[in-house]
């Protein structure tokens, strides 16, 4: 369902826009995704709404059929956020060791402590970090909005499947412009 509204207390969750991931072979150019993300970050900060910056510092420990990436110590700077994020002292930083930002962190507690009822999710990769975070947010009782032009993936089929089939079941989809317009209604 397309975006209908933003709750009074909405937080922006930025998934994995970090130095160690940003050079992946994404299906769409990453620069516009970064630019839209920076626009959303400025808009949320301007209105003193919570901003959550999520980085990945490893993975879940279970066995898988596919070879694990990053099984050795991560390179220096891997988890650092890209400069365009312009990390601020008021931002909440969450370091995850699973696909989703809620499973191995205290993010649920921190958002509920701030009386957040809705999350807007952006970042990479659509079919893993973004989708897992959206699933976990939905299951934790948050209203979820997914900004489809501020995310991408390395796999076109995963990106499209998440946007067309999964996201409408977890919340509402939107564009950066939709979110900015909704936030602008608060300024009147």
UniProtKB/TrEMBL annotation:
Entry keyword Iron: no
One Gene Ontology MF term: hydrolase activity
InterPro entries listed in its UniProt record: Isochorismatase-like_dom, Isochorismatase-like_hydrls, Isochorismatase-like_sf
Ranges of residues in domain Isochorismatase-like: 10-178
Keyword Hydrolase attached: yes
Record keywords, A-Z: Hydrolase, Plasmid
CDD domains linked to this entry: cysteine_hydrolases (cd00431)
Highest rank taxon of the organism: Bacteria
Name of the protein described by the UniProt record: Isochorismatase family protein
Organism annotation: Rhizobium jaguaris
